[in-house]
Structures are given as structure tokens and as C-alpha cells.
Specification:
Helix content is 28%, strand content 31%. The chain is α+β, with helices and mostly antiparallel strands and 138 residues long.
Length: 138
């Protein structure tokens, strides 16, 4: 793969093979959550990595001024350990203050390696490990 590039939801909508009603449902969900999807495709336009983020009403720790939640980040197994996820995070960190709840210490290490800070918080009586990132220099 010679060039990596990011596509946004607006660019993706043009390539989705959905009918009008399905597009309306997808767009409604995206608008309601203020959700965004970012993709990396290979030369054959196959999705190899993507990240989903959504707007948060508040930041539980009060660390982010304009908080977004990193809901999901995924890289196809054939393309893992090649920097795809790190590339996506670097791109997102230029525009969004984000937090996420890594599933385990391996995921937390990945986020910390990519400039996120680790914090333990208590929500609803449960201790939760979170990672967060403020906007980096553009």
C-alpha cells in the first residue's frame, strides 16, 4: 500500500449501495449521535481500518473541553501491526478531544503508546480505566 488516506462519513455516503430509505436511517443515526466514521482503504478500495467516534454530552473526568468518545477502532487482521490504527489515532487527535474505555491492558498500552493518557475513574460505583487525549498540534 503506497498511500494511506482518511475518508469521512460524507465521502463514504457517496459509495454506499443503499437505497434512499436505508440512507435516511444511517444519516439519522449519524446526525443524532453526531457520529463520525473514518476509514482507510487499500488500492482496491477495500476497507482495511476504521474508527468510529461520537459526541459526548459531558466528560466524566472534566478533562476535555469538547469531548468525543472513541467508540471503536478496528484494523483487518491481514493489515495489523503495520501502523494503521496508529495512523488513524494520529489523524483523529489533530481534530478531536477523545476518551475511550480500553477493554484490557493490551488495548490501554496501544492508546498510551499513541499519546493517550490513562486515568482510573469511578462511574456508578464501578472503577473504570479510561484513556483520553487532547488535541495535538496540527
Amino acid at each position: 500500500m503506497n498511500q494511506r488516506y482518511i475518508e469521512t462519513v460524507d465521502e463514504i455516503k457517496q459509495t454506499l449501495p443503499l437505497n434512499g430509505y436505508e440512507n435516511m436511517i444511517v444519516e439519522g443515526w449519524l446526525d443524532e449521535l453526531q457520529a463520525k466514521c473514518f476509514l482507510i482503504r487499500d488500492e482496491d478500495r477495500r476497507i482495511i481500518s476504521f474508527a468510529l467516534i461520537s459526541k459526548m454530552l459531558t466528560d466524566p473526568e472534566g478533562l476535555l473541553k469538547d469531548p468525543w468518545c472513541l467508540n471503536f477502532i478496528y484494523t483487518h487482521p491481514e493489515h495489523r501491526l503495520r501502523g494503521q490504527g496508529s495512523f488513524l489515532l494520529k489523524h483523529l487527535k489533530k481534530e478531536f478531544e477523545m476518551s475511550c474505555c480500553p477493554l484490557d491492558h493490551h488495548f490501554m498500552q496501544f492508546f498510551v503508546k499513541n499519546g493517550f493518557k490513562s486515568v482510573r475513574t469511578r462511574i456508578g460505583g464501578i472503577d473504570i480505566d479510561m484513556a483520553y487525549s487532547t488535541i495535538t498540534e496540527r
